[in-house]
Amino acid sequence: MMIDPHSDEAKKRSKPGVIARLRGNFLAGLIIVAPIGMTIWLIWTVVGWVDSWVWPFIPNAYQPTALLNDLLGREPGNEIEVNVRGVGVVIFLVFTILVGWIGKGLIGRSFLGIGERLVDRTPVVRSIYNAVKQIAETVFSQRETSFDKACLVEYPRKGIWAIAFISINAKGEIDSKLNDGEPFVTVFLPTTPNPTSGFLLFLPKRDVMPLDMTVEDAAKLVISAGLVYPNGKDPAPVTNPAA
């Protein structure tokens, strides 16, 4: 028996039920609430961790609880307990800025050089320190060490394109071995959805197709496995000059 798609019975069957509507609303709300909640939770957790690491170095007389009770004139045994999150972070920031200011000076660089020479003579400590230092310099350095542009390269074979990031032109021995009159480009090809791993490629400049999108947008596209497309608008149609 055929049912008319425009009949009332067909409309009733096609209309989602209460459970389906509730599930859809729940998923839509979860998409909104989850990022906000995770961000607040992460910030709250990190701030608490920094506070718990900093406060043991602060004398008891300068703890927030002691200062507040002294200000209010509270006697021992009738004290108010205070948990002020974020003050430890401020102290840590001020301390780090002060260390950086001293380290950039002549005296600070001298003491830092002496300390690093002592560390280089200690086998296990040397490996740990150099690894952490290299990571910190890569992440926090203010020098222009980031990727230049996003690009497309044919990988793993001709006709298949992958997103990559242009680093710098090939230099040193690699450039001297490969250069045949055309510069070679150093390209990092990330994996999906973990862009911290990938492949380091040295390609002729003619085989690299630069993109107009930013490096951050290209990274979002890689991490989301193509689900988050940065260019919301379609590109302008290319007109044929001959026409």
Q: Could you characterize what this model shows?
A:
This protein has 243 residues and is α+β, with helices and mostly antiparallel strands. The protein has a domain at 149-223. Helices cover 49% and strands 13% of the residues. A 5-stranded antiparallel beta sheet has the order 4-3-2-1-5, covered by helices on one side. The protein starts with 7 loop residues before the first helix and ends in a 20-residue tail after the last helix.
Brief sketch in words of this structure:
With 243 residues, the protein is an alpha+beta fold. The chain has a domain at 149-223. 49% of the residues lie in helices and 13% in strands.
Radius of gyration over C-alpha positions, nearest whole angstrom: 29 Å
**Order of helices and strands, N to C?**
HHHHHHEEHEEEH
Shape: flat
Q: With helices defined by DSSP (H or I, 4 residues minimum), what is the helix count?
A: 8
β-strand number: 5
Profile the largest sheet. Answer: 5 strands, antiparallel
Helix content: 40-55%
Class of secondary structure makeup? alpha+beta
Strand content: 5-15%
Unreliable runs: 234-243
| N-to-C span | 56 Å
Mean pLDDT: 77
Neighbour order of strands in the largest sheet: 4-3-2-1-5
